[in-house]
Write a structure and sequence with these properties.
454 residues; mainly beta; five-stranded antiparallel beta sheet; 1% helix
Length: 454
């Protein structure tokens, strides 16, 4: 978006509309996996966008079971869980949205593909990705820097169809720079009847999905409501009845009604923070958990930037932050028992586990597991530009956490099943995982509870 700020170190931490009707790339009708019960399997999915590779490993044994080539995984949009061994993500090289299915034996294949229109060459990257509570529809938004005219592609997986529409947003005074510009367009698929909701510059706009799927290319909002400054992390509960976002100064949520929105609630961050990075929905379906960089003076070295884990709720005004230490950090991984963050500090690297309390807040006892420092990791007191970084993920059952070693082609697996977490093994991949790569886990029996791409 215009005046997009330079990537923060902690995010490592860091006029005419064209013809937009696009058709799904044909696949055999049998390719889309049936939603039938399967034996319990957990898979680790690793993406190396720079190498255009995607790997699948058994999350229990570490054994690699599948490799796909020619996929530039969109790490900004991430992936969304669809259940029954399936995830959706954007392949930026095409661009297209892919649905990946993993068989009980760990075989991985793309079973559905949907081309994202790019006849004018404007495509930069996918902004945000979302699904609805039935996991039938998907929405992926554009991220045209500095433009008030964006696009969203809405996909119906059951009918194997897609429609792309123009979405109008507004320029606002950016909370990060104080200058006028545009914010990122988050997407949601919520409500009954189903609506596409987007952040549109100081507001949330809702559009009729049925109208979009009938072929409307420039829909008008059916409802709108104010939204605070600088959304950077969509929040939606598992039932799709409450949506919102992490903002520059706190968290705002609104209830979704049959006719629009109601009951807006805003809570400030407990600690002064830059913003939140990619909050995830916890398995309870109501709690959002994210890592944050604390506010600092200009010129503060990366190893002196405070890192926080912040928990908020879609059902109450509860919010809490835990001090993780100073340094750069990964997106959070969340399980039913704990949240996990890989922290790189000036004195060493560690995986920090924060226990979930009985009230659902992740602010309990913290445990740190030492990690071998990155070979080309950031050096205290020196700029971190170009230094290697990490990415993390956890199994839904909380038995394992995985942390990449960027530029080294390795993943550290930490056993978190017992009382004392410890390093279990190192998984080696054929490519380097430049930029830290991307990780997610896929549990064949867990019903998805996060409707946003992470």
């Amino acid at each position: 978006m215009s005046a997009r700020p330079a990537r923060f170190l902690p995010a490592l931490v860091l006029t005419a509309i064209l013809p937009l009707a696009a058709t799904a790339i044909a696949v055999p009708a049998s390719a889309a996996p049936a939603a039938t019960p399967t034996a319990h399997h957990i898979w680790l999915v690793t993406a190396d966008p720079a190498a255009e590779r995607l790997y699948v490993n058994d999350a229990v044994t570490g054994r690699r079971t599948g490799t796909l080539s020619g996929i530039e995984f969109g790490t900004h949009a991430g992936s969304v869980q669809l259940g029954h061994g399936r995830i959706a993500f954007v392949d930026e090289s095409k661009p297209q949205l892919d649905v990946l299915a993993i068989s009980p034996r760990g075989t991985a294949r793309i079973v559905q593909r949907y081309a994202i229109p790019n006849g004018d060459g404007r495509w930069e990257r996918a902004g945000w990705l979302s699904t609805d509570t039935t996991h039938r529809h998907l929405a992926v938004g554009s991220d045209f820097d500095g433009s008030e005219r964006q696009r969203v592609t809405v996909i119906d997986l059951r009918r194997n169809t897609e429609r792309t529409v123009r979405i109008d947003t507004s320029a606002v005074q950016l909370a990060t720079t104080g200058k006028r510009g545009t914010e990122e367009v988050e997407t949601f698929l919520v409500g009954n009847p189903l609506r596409l909701v987007v952040t549109a510059g100081g507001r949330l706009d809702a559009y009729s999905v049925s109208a979009i799927m009938r072929g409307t290319t420039h829909p008008r909002p059916v409802a709108t409501t104010p939204l605070g400054a600088y959304p950077h992390g969509p929040i939606v509960n598992a039932s799709g009845t409450v949506i919102g976002s992490d903002l520059a100064a706190g968290v705002q949520t609104v209830r979704v009604t049959r006719t629009g929105f109601a009951g807006s609630r805003s809570v400030a961050y407990p600690e002064p923070s830059v913003q939140s990075y990619r909050p995830r929905m916890a398995p309870d379906g109501t709690t959002a958990v994210g890592t944050q960089a604390g506010s600092t003076a200009a010129g503060t070295p990366w190893n002196a930037v405070p890192a926080f884990l912040t928990t908020s709720s879609t059902s109450s005004s509860k919010i809490s932050s835990v001090d993780l230490g100073d340094g750069s950090f990964t997106r959070v991984a969340v399980t039913a028992r704990f949240a996990a963050v890989a922290l790189t500090s000036g004195t060493g690297d560690s995986l920090v586990l924060v226990r979930k309390q009985a009230d659902g807040v992740y602010d309990g006892r913290t445990t740190a597991v030492a990690l071998t420092p990155l070979r080309n990791g950031p050096v205290a007191g020196q700029p971190a530009t170009g230094a290697s970084v990490r990415f993390s993920a956890a199994t839904d059952d909380g038995r394992s956490v995985f942390v990449t070693r960027g530029d080294e082609g390795k993943i550290t697996q930490i056993d978190t099943a017992g009382k004392t977490p410890s390093v279990l093994r190192t998984i080696t991949l054929p490519t380097a995982l430049a930029g830290g790569g991307y990780l997610t886990t896929v549990d064949s029996t867990v019903r998805p509870y996060d409707l946003s791409g992470r």
